[in-house]
Amino acid sequence: MTRPGLLALLAVVACTGACTDAPKPGITLWHSYSGAERTALETTAAHWNTDHPDAPLMLVAMPHDGFADKVTSAIPGGNGPDLFIYAHDRVGAWAEAGVLEPIEFYVDDARADRFSSDAIDRLAYHGSLWGLPLTQKALVLYYRTDLVATAPATTDDLVKLAPKMKERDGFAFAYSNVDLYGHAPWLHAFGGTVMDDTGTLAIASPEAANAMAFARDLVATGVVPANADNPLEASLFNAGRVAAVMSGPWFATDIRKDVPWAVATLPIVSPTGRPAAPYFSTEGVLMSARARDKDAAFAVMDTLTSDAAAVTRAQIARQVVPNVHAWDDAKVAADPFLRVFRTQIAHSVPMPKTPVMRMVWTPYADALGEVISGRAEPGAKLNNLQDAIQKLK
Amino acid sequence: MSTADLLRRQLRDFAAAAVIAVLFASCAFVAGRNSDLAEHQLGLASRSVDQLIAGGEALPTVTGALVAPATPSVAHPYLRHRQLRTPSGWRDLQPSEKWMYDAVTRFDREGAFTELVPDGTGRAIAVRAAEETTAIAITSPTTPAPYPFLVMIGVLGLGLALTAAGSLVGGRAANLGALAGIAALAVPTALWHAWIATTAIALVAAGVTLAQHARLTDRLSDGLVRHRTALGFLMPAMIAMFVLVAAPFLIGIVLGFYDHSHNTWTFVGLANFGEILSGGGKQLDDPLNFWFILGVTVLWTLANVILHVTIGVALALVLSRTWLRGKGIFRMLLILPWAIPNYITALMWHGMFQGEYGAMNSILHHAGLSGVSWFSSWATAFSANVITNTWLGFPFMMVVALGALESIPKELYEAASVDGASAWQRFRHITLPHLRPALGPAVALGSIWTFNMFNVIYLVSGGAPGGSTNILVTDAFHWAFERGERYGMAAAEATIIFLILLLWTVFGNRVVKSKDADA
Amino acid sequence: MAMNRKPRLAFLIAAHVLLIVVVAVVLYPVMLVCKKAFEPGRDFALSASPIPTDVTLDHFHDLFDKRGGHGELLFLRHAFNSIIVALATTVFGVAISCTAAYALSRFRFPGRKAGLTTFLVVQMFPATLLLLPLYVILNKIGLLNSITGLVLVYSTTAIPFCVWTLKGYFDSLPRELEEAARIDGASTWMIFRRIMLPLARPGLAVTALFSFMTAWNEFIMADTFMTDESKYTLPVLINSSVGAFSADYGLFAAGAVITSVPVMIAFYVLQKYLVGGLTAGAVKG
After folding, report:
1. Residue B355: how many CB atoms within 10 A of its CB?
2. A118, A162, B21, C273: which could join B185 in a potential S-S bond, CB 3.0 to 4.6 Å?
3. Which of A277, A177, A291, A179 has its CA nearest to residue A223?
């Protein structure tokens, strides 16, 4: 290459490098929404931006995998966003690590009463408020109406589907069984917990062992596939190889258009006679402790969680919004999908938000994997797990 | 030596020493300035709070106030109303006084504190209990003292003058002059009480004088002049290597001696290394124990290199036969795995091993076997990694072996045939010795690549189940980015990995060389 | 069984069959990905057959139509970022290394051997070992989440690599021309600029392409250092399309096909230099 050519190339490279790196003014918000949730968020952001050209809101979409870790390492270094969207279960750890900014200074009772209190209370920790709620998520039962005429009311109803589904080289239903979040409905129905009311670890109990044995037997008897995860559940459901899937609101976007389906609240767990109770999480918009313009950032939070924005999100993305008055909207109130989720959330257990919980998810999933594959006994495994996590603390 | 030559030499040595001395002095200045400033600001805030508690005003340039106890909301106990005491009575907080509100909330939770605000403005905040209220003070943002250019230029001039004067007198005085001249640069650091820098500069002065005595400076300067062309050519790459490789490398080693939590670094000496090498108090069969991971890494490297070499050499032996039809096409297709970006390969295999219905399990079903849930037990997850990496890595060995085989003179085989050597004998005495010199380095290189094959482990098994299939590099990554930013642990582990690799390279080189000697 | 003598027919057939089986095993995953790129659906291989049952271009369409927060076309944006990063790394790496490689090849000076060893060792050791200090430094100087920062990071691998391979190429060039020029009174710089660089053009091209490919294929640094969706490179995009929560293998396959094909072409063109360069370095070291 000739020298002028080389220099020109260098100049182009340097210039594009500089252009793409220039810092932008305004409020930056990180989120991991995609599809309709993203569209709904962008709609509200567009409204904000026409009203506030001086402090534009910039949405940065990021993959959900590793999102929380990126937030944790970027914010203290000053490279993070001003705002971000995440579920309430990390709030405790982030508040203690100085990642989040407390916002109760801006919030009075009138503003807080906009939300159902089980939603906004989830975002409080250590006597401060750390975010405003956007939506609540929990597991429900999706079923194919061409394979099951009416919603299965009990787990026995689901088990009864197994022989017929086996003929189709499939399973009665599927859920993420090697995962505490997926397993939680059984755990709670059997009366087990991870943490008791005082926040102390209560992993090992006969109830929790029974729940694990129940999950193991579902696999052993060929009722559910082992090691299912969201992509597999979607494939099986779309291919008609499972009649039902226990999953969250995100699952609706994975269902192919030609598949007839409906949702129902989780069934009663037959051995206990009690309904399966999933964890519910509250997703909120949270403020970074390093936000540059905190007043403007809070104004954005306020707009994003306003009743009008909530109706937009409920209509476009079918989010179960915590704004009490959003449900006055006729279209939102009439949506059967939203109604099922709302009922389910009312019968769910809030996901714990203490930092200890972060040490529980992975080991618990590993324990489930060992028990379900028959390499460990539920009781002994849960005792080990409790000891191991106690030691980590 | 003429006076002019002497003067030139002394000034040259002074200039070199001065560059080092100024560097030390500047570091000392910046460090001293920051800690002085912090101390000053913290003192201001603290004294203001004292005054407020005693019923007075905050010091000038400091904002202070007394805040009333909170009245929590009935419905939401975490929403609290606070008021501020002013000379004319109580008033509500202004929008600009959020920092006061938050500081007092923190005080209610944790008790009194005095610290720097971690936003780079250099402000200090102090909060303490006062009678029925909370006293709070924050200093104004400050800019640090400017760099003392005049002082530095002054002492440089002084040093220069001393050196020159000594040279003009000549003899012993020349050396004394340079010694005094360089030592003069230690005067400002002594005034800043930066004793480490002062000692270092004094040592530089003594060192230069001794080196002059032994004619080392002359020899060094002659060498530099003689090789100035080479030096000029090397300079860009040397600077880049220093800035981009050596500096991060050294910083990485240093970071290993610190603990990182909540964005603050604390010096902990060898604690990180101790925690890693002792296995962190975990059982030897715990997947987070360093020795377990090292064992997995070694097993991983061995399994892969053996498979790569065996498959690669076997295929090369077949491909090098002259009777083979379609040699070019076979060769091209067999190299394919090497040509695909390895993160894509890893993701592709991850998909194939995934779940009940991945391609691998479909094949097993077709073969009448039951599916395996690959990532739920160590053996299967490890095998999945090895299968992926074997697929990815054998073409390299195959190509190297092919190259070596093609360079073997045909006459050797013909002569051996005439002598009645069996196929095995020909392989043992002709093929193998010719393969060795090419395969030796390829194995050394391949083992280092495999030892550090981050992408395959991270993307195929991701360490599942329970981190037990992690190798050292992925484990270090988890320390840094997935276990609460334990950067110190990650840095220490990277240093250990580096030492292992270095040992292996030295040792491996020796093995290769001794084999060469045999052949 | 001398190399040239034809063995028995049965053996011959067995050898060919064996090779065909091995090739089939090698090609199978690649064919699965190609199949997925053209077959509708988001899941990966519910059937083991590598032949698509239904052909569609939807995945490619979706890939190109993926939009960012400002409505920009993400795939093109990421492809552009990848090209810029790889190109800048290459230009920077080769420009800085070529003089040093020449000096190491032609001049004799104290410390040369130590220098060569350093370049060799650094070239062999992976940049992942430097990941953490680089992260901390970039964070400190504000170059995290910036294209410039990524180029600097990739240069840590590119420079030692370029020095080492270029040095090998200079070694292979004859010295006569330089000596003649020196007798004619040309300066070292003139000789380097006017004679050696033009002579080394093939070597420069190959080295440049390799550093380009290294940067183009790098995944973990880009994934860790970049946070802004508009600054991702292609590997990050492709990896994020198959996350744990929502995996779209159709999108992945389409992206994988598009990003791999140029690399594969470059690889086939250059493979003989690649092997030579890598092993020559190791043998001489």
Report:
1. 25
2. B21
3. A177
Shortest CA gap A314–chain C (Å): 20
Give residue limits of the domains in chain A.
24-137+281-350, 140-277+360-392
pLDDT of B318 above 70: yes
Report how far apart, in Å, the C-alpha atoms of B159 and of each of B18, B164, B192, B218 are: 9, 9, 19, 20
Chain C residues within an 8 Å CB radius of B502? 121
Evaluate if residue A214 carries a pLDDT over 90.
yes
Verify whether the Cβ–Cβ distance B498 to C129 is below 8 Å.
Answer: yes
Give the phi and the psi of residue C57 in degrees, each rounded to 5.
Answer: -105, 15
Asked if B227's CB is within 8 angstroms of C45's CB, the reply is: no
Please give the full DSSP string across B362-407, using - where no structure is assigned.
HHHHHTTPPP--GGGSHHHHHHHHHHHHHHHHHHHHHHHHHHHHHT
C68 and C173 assigned to the same domain: yes
Distance from CA of C1 to the nearest CA of B (A): 6
Q: How far is residue B124's CA from residue B177's CA, in Å, rounded to a whole number?
A: 47
Homologous superfamily of domain range A24-137+281-350: Periplasmic binding protein-like II (3.40.190.10)
Contacts of A105 in chain B (CB under 8 A): 93, 98, 101-102
Chain B residue at shortest CA distance from C157: B245
What is the pLDDT confidence band of residue B514, given thresholds at 50, 70 and 90? Answer: low
Closest CA of chain A from B126, distance in Å: 18
Under an 8 A CB cutoff, do A178 and B376 touch?
A: yes
Say if the Cβ atoms of B79 and A228 lie within 8 Å. Answer: no
Residue C225 in contact with residue C135, Cβ under 8 Å? yes
Instruction: Summarize pLDDT for A333-383 with one digit per residue, the tens.
Output: 999 999 999 999 999 999 988 888 877 888 898 889 889 888 889 999 999
Per-residue pLDDT band at B519 (split at 50, 70, 90):
very low
Selected residue of B376, B378, B470, B485 to mutate for chain A interface (largest A Cβ count, 10 A):
B376
Same domain, residue pair B219 and B299? no
Where residue C242 sits, what CATH number does that domain have?
1.10.3720.10
Give chain A positions within 8 Å (CB) of C148: 17-18, 21
pLDDT band at A24 (very low <50, low <70, confident <90, very high): low
Same-domain pairing of C47 and C76: no
Q: Can you give the residue range of the structural domain that contains C23? A: 9-56
Q: Is A305 exposed, middle or buried (0-12, 13-18, 19+ CB in 10 A)?
A: buried
B497 inside 8 A of chain C by CB: yes
Neighbours of chain C (3+ CB pairs under 8 A): A, B
CATH class of A140-277+360-392: alpha beta
